[in-house]
Write a structure and sequence with these properties.
It is built from 10 helices and 7 strands. It is of the alpha/beta class. The protein has 2 domains: 228 residues, Rossmann fold, CATH 3.40.50.150; 35 residues, no CATH class. A 7-stranded mixed sheet has the order 3-2-1-4-5-7-6, sandwiched between helices. The N terminus is likely disordered.
């Protein structure tokens, strides 16, 4: 699946400096990181560092719907071994070129497969027949699969005991707020009250999630230590004209980071994030 697969927010990439236990020398030309989802990058970096320290070795990572390697290439540049599963041959070809550009092709395995195969445990295991993974990243995928619970069960089947899941989905309440501010009150109400978080037939996204729904789904599948944080609380609401300068963009990034980590307001404001980022651990 290509990097624009969810059509709601860009696929995050990992900022190399946030992963504090590199296993190889940093690449000569560091992989650039889009700032829009830096909070996701920071959190994934913390998971990678923690698990790598625990295991005292590079990680085995599965990136579902990993597209052109925005996540895989930076992780591979740190010495981790990454398998990317994506349905798009064009995206996988771009991944191979990018991996070659950063000299990490030997640490990236590209496999073509439809994301709905996630709900079929046997098919998923066949597609990624590389054993159990220490970390599975599933970003912008759960919104488009036919069976979200089945997909998460499939993810659990390929995670090693104690392994981590990083899950990024589209948030419902962000669209409610954005539609209301745009004067589309009927659409806002439909997104708020519909079972799938859609505004109707013209909505390009099959479903959206809220914080409680996502946490309940992960718990039901058997994941533990579930945490859900909102990301891009303000980024999609701010007029682009206010972000002309690097200083303005940095200020917005700092605000987003502060919201994500605030001890009192992260939970409240995070529910309004365009993306909901969940982390969980396999029992």
């Amino acid at each position: 699946m290509a990097d624009d697969r969810a059509a709601t927010f860009d696929t995050p990439t990992i900022d190399t400096p946030t992963i504090d236990t590199p296993t190889v020398d940093a690449p000569a030309h560091p992989v650039p990181t889009p700032p829009r989802l830096q909070a996701v990058s920071d959190t994934v970096g913390e998971l990678v560092g923690r698990r790598s320290r625990d295991l005292e070795r590079p990680l085995r990572v599965l990136d579902l719907g990993g597209g052109t390697g925005g996540l895989a290439v930076p992780l591979a540049a740190l010495g981790h071994h990454v398998t990317v599963l994506d349905p798009s041959p064009d995206a996988l070809a771009a991944l191979e070129r990018r991996a070659a550009e950063y000299s990490v092709a030997d640490r990236i395995t590209a496999r073509q497969g439809d994301t709905d195969s996630l709900a079929d445990t046997e098919t998923l295991v066949d597609l990624v027949s590389d054993g159990a993974f220490d970390l599975v990243c599933c970003h912008g995928v759960l919104e488009v699969v036919d069976d979200p619970a089945g997909a998460l069960a499939g993810v659990a089947s390929v995670l090693a005991p104690g392994g981590y899941l990083s899950l990024l989905v589209a948030g419902r309440l962000a669209v409610v707020l954005a539609r209301a501010l745009a004067g589309d009150f009927g659409y806002a109400r439909q997104v708020l009250t519909s079972e799938d978080g859609r505004w109707g037939r013209t909505d390009p996204l099959p479903r959206r999630f809220d914080t409680e729904e996502l946490a309940t789904l992960l718990d039901r599948v058997g994941f533990r230590d579930v945490e859900v944080h909102g990301v891009r609380v303000f980024a999609d609401l701010v007029p682009s004209a206010t972000l002309d300068s690097a200083a303005d963009r940095a200020a917005l990034d700092a605000l987003e980071r502060e919201v994500a980590a605030h001890p009192r307001y992260a939970d409240v404001l995070g529910r309004l994030g365009a993306g909901l980022h969940a982390t969980a651990r396999h029992a």
